[in-house]
Amino acid sequence: MAVSVIGAGLAGCECAWQLARRGVDVTLYEMKPERRSPAHVSDSFAELVCSNSLRSDELTNAVGLLKEEMRRLDSLILTCADEYRVPAGGALAVDREGFSQAVTRRIREHPHIRVVREEVTAIPDGRVIVATGPLTDGAMAERIGELCPGADLHFFDAVAPIVTLESVDMTSAWFASRYDKGTSDYVNCPMEREEYDAFVRELAAAQEAEAHGFEDSGVFEGCMPVEVMARRGPDTLRYGPLKPVGLRDPRTGREPWAVVQLRMDNAQGTLYNMVGFQTHLRFPEQRRVFSMIPALRNASFVRYGVMHRNTYLNSPQLLDRYYRLRSDPRISFAGQITGVEGYVESAASGLLAGLEAAREVLGLPPADFPQETAIGALALYVSGGSVGDFQPMNINFGLIPPLDHRVRGKRNKNAALSARSLDILKTLRL
């Protein structure tokens, strides 16, 4: 039996790959280039529309554990990300174009995957996995709404600007990673108190772009626009994305009042994105206000920040631990539409949905990833572990059961949780 996967984003591609590598035939539907969402610009699969970072790669961080579990399960997304890694200290960041092209190429070359470039407006017959992403709208959104009462939840998501490295004034900036950890992968743009105060005042008062129907929505805390943070108080940014802790300016020998960090966005090292600067400001306002940062006074912006709506299901009421629809188990969901938040989490949900669907098609028992694993913990949270109003969730160690013995120190405890998870993963018959 063939399986239909709708959407060739991170989750859809990972899902299709996990099915295909187990010998299951897949029809992968992708609406680009026939139609694009407001956030997409490329025709390639697995397009990264926000940051180019997949976050920490360390096993003392929950997302680092999640990535390691995925690597051990032959994740397509992690294989391509590792291949197109760019320097980012302890984080895994990628050349977004090379990464996306690699995923597209491997999907197209797999003998068990048939790619259909067209918009799907109805749920196909047979086994289906819907990975249409957080910008699902139109006819597909209507079909999902008919299947899933409460599917119209949504939140704002925002994208940070990208500048050319050659336009950054390096007499006012320096390369380093926080606490000099790893290699010097970030461009650090310092601000003294007077510069910072003026910047925050202008940022808080800057004009936003029209939201086009999103005006009644809240702002998701995990992707807070920088101008919203500025309005929450004068110190919000310098205790958030502009925190100077662990960054000593070599010109002065001390920590600045605030620091804007830029992270490499392509393998050539010619483009850098403004870390934590997701924004919904009008483009002329972005240029005006962000040019107040001394090192960016003459910056050339190759992409401005944009904001768009993300839609997700009320998954605890709708989905089981395999991301299947409880009311119709032939249909699964994967990716941010399920309420997982983040690139890695989206791909992980696709991995689990695809792996479990493959086992179902092949007549094998489910893998049943336990809560002690990051993959399992995320799925179990999304399918019923939340309390109160369901909100999108990143992987974190709070979703994983505690150890049965005491370990001193947070890093040591997190390392022990990761070691336990990876040991359990080895025992699963996959």
Gyration radius, in Å:
22 Å
How many distinct domains? 2
* Helix proportion range: 25-40%
Strand order of the largest sheet: 6-2-1-7-17-16
Per-chain topology:
Blueprint: E1 3-6, H1 10-20, E2 26-30, E3 53-56, H2 62-72, H3 76-83, E4 85-86, E5 91-94, H4 96-109, E6 113-117, E7 127-130, H5 138-147, E8 153-158, E9 162-164, E10 174-176, E11 186-191, H6 193-205, H7 226-231, E12 258-264, E13 271-274, H8 283-290, E14 301-303, E15 307-312, H9 315-318, E16 324-325, E17 328-333, H10 343-361, H11 374-385, H12 410-427
Parallel strand pairs: 1-2, 1-7, 2-6, 7-17
Antiparallel strand pairs: 3-5, 4-5, 8-15, 9-13, 9-14, 10-11, 11-12, 12-13, 16-17
Helix pairs in contact: 1-10, 2-10, 2-12, 3-4, 10-11
3D structure, described in words:
The protein has 430 residues and is an alpha+beta fold. The chain has 2 domains: 3-156 and 310-427, FAD/NAD(P)-binding domain; 162-305, Elongation Factor Tu (Ef-tu), domain 3 (Beta Barrel), CATH 2.40.30. It is 31% helix and 17% strand. The protein has helices at residues 10-20, 62-72, 76-83, 96-109, 138-147, 193-205, 226-231, 283-290, 315-318, 343-361, 374-385, 410-427; strands spanning 3-6, 26-30, 53-56, 85-86, 91-94, 113-117, 127-130, 153-158, 162-164, 174-176, 186-191, 258-264, 271-274, 301-303, 307-312, 324-325, 328-333. The strands form 4 sheets. The chain has a 6-stranded mixed β-sheet with strand order 6-2-1-7-17-16, covered by helices on one side. The chain has a 6-stranded antiparallel β-sheet with strand order 10-11-12-13-9-14. A 3-stranded antiparallel β-sheet has the order 3-5-4. Strand 16 and strand 17 (328-333) form a beta hairpin. Helix 1 runs parallel beside helix 10 (343-361), helix 2 packs parallel to helix 10 and helix 3 (76-83) packs across helix 4 (96-109).
